[in-house]
Amino acid sequence: MKAVVIRQYGPAEVLRYEDVEQPKLEPMQLLVKVRASSVNPVDWKIRQGMLSLISGSKFPKILGFDVAGDVVAVGSGVTHFKPGDAIYGSTSFPGGGYAEFAAIPENLAAFKPTNLSYEEAAAVPLAALTALQALRNEGNIQTGQNVLINGAAGGVGVFAVQIAKALGAVVTGVSSTKNLDLVKSLGADRVIDYTQQDFVEDTAQYDIIFDAVGKRSLSQTKRVLKSKGIYITTLPSPEVFLEGVLTAFLPGQKAKFILQKPNTQDLVYLKELIETGKIRVVIDRTYPLQEVAAAHAYSESERAAGKIVLAQPVVDIAVSS
């Protein structure tokens, strides 16, 4: 099969489109013909070697956590899917989605939302699960709470704004000037242009601050966080880790970071929100899989509004039982 592989850590040029062996199917996995995947910052952080303590030194590696496609075969222990099913979901660490075929654990997959294309569906899993689990699991979001999303136009932020609204919050979105209208269209009750105003100098107070771009810390935001408010970030920096440990055992404000845990149940929940029109997918750019290096470079620029998708041509496939 064709896949994008890396044989060493380094810049975008280490991404190579090559022929590799098709993944071997384990009992609890689905073999999926990948129609689309997406680029997340964790992909290029792995590629650069920033996560080498976790990703290790074994090469070649196929990156990519998000997958949307069609099941072509199932492992002997699979009970909920069959060949021909259209699914979306996540690969296991460190990836595997940048390929013609991917092996997806059954418990990390769900049926694709019926109102989404494969490209749109591939934009959902990692980013939307991060937003959902941050707000619901870590933030314990409640109806009527004031929630601020920093990075509201980013890959995670666009889902966070919509999920917070779906869960009944009053949402303030922080973005650049050019993305204010987008953030408003996603349902934000209020927007802050960070090029004109630093949200930590605002007069409002928030129950939850979700830093979807990992740019701040509790110490920097505590002035605008309510006395029992929760600061959540996507970047587990040493400062945030220390703040999290200290605040876990003390009353008052809390600092937390989110490490999303892919699972079928949450993908099904997101599917319901999508099919009922409570979440829409925002795609900034779509690249052919062969142009993944350009997609990584664009992601690293931090200019994307919404998600960056990698698409593959639709061809007829044979399915096996």
Layout of strands and helices, then pairs:
Elements (H helix, E strand, L loop, with lengths): L1 E5 L9 E4 L9 E11 L1 H8 L3 H4 L5 E2 L3 E9 L11 E5 L10 E5 L3 E3 L6 H5 L2 H14 L7 E5 L6 H10 L3 E6 L4 H6 L4 E4 L12 E6 L6 H4 L3 E9 L4 H11 L5 E4 L6 H12 L7 E6 L3 H9 L6 E5 L10
Parallel strand pairs: 9-10, 9-12, 10-11, 12-13, 13-14, 15-16
Antiparallel strand pairs: 1-2, 1-4, 3-5, 3-7, 3-16, 5-6, 6-8
Helix pairs in contact: 4-5
Keywords summarizing the entry:
alpha/beta; disordered C terminus; 321 residues; single chain; six-stranded parallel β-sheet; 28% strand; 10 helices; 16 strands
Provide a descriptive summary of the structure in words.
This protein has 321 residues and is α/β, with parallel strands linked by helices. The protein contains 10 helices and 16 strands. Strand 12, helix 7 and strand 13 form a beta-alpha-beta unit. The longest helix is centred in the middle third of the chain and has 14 residues.
Question: What's a quick, concise take on this entry?
Answer:
With 321 residues, this protein is α/β, with parallel strands linked by helices. It is built from ten helices and 16 strands.
Following the backbone from N to C, one meets helices and strands in this order, namely EEEHHEEEEEHHEHEHEEHEHEHEHE
Tell me the β content.
Answer: 25-35%
Global structural class = alpha/beta
Helix content: 25-40%
Question: Treating each run of at least 4 consecutive H or I residues as one helix, how many helices?
Answer: 10
What are the segments in which pLDDT stays under 50 over at least 5 consecutive residues? 316-321
Q: Name the shape in a single word.
A: globular
Gap between N and C termini: 20 Å
Question: How many beta-strand elements?
Answer: 16
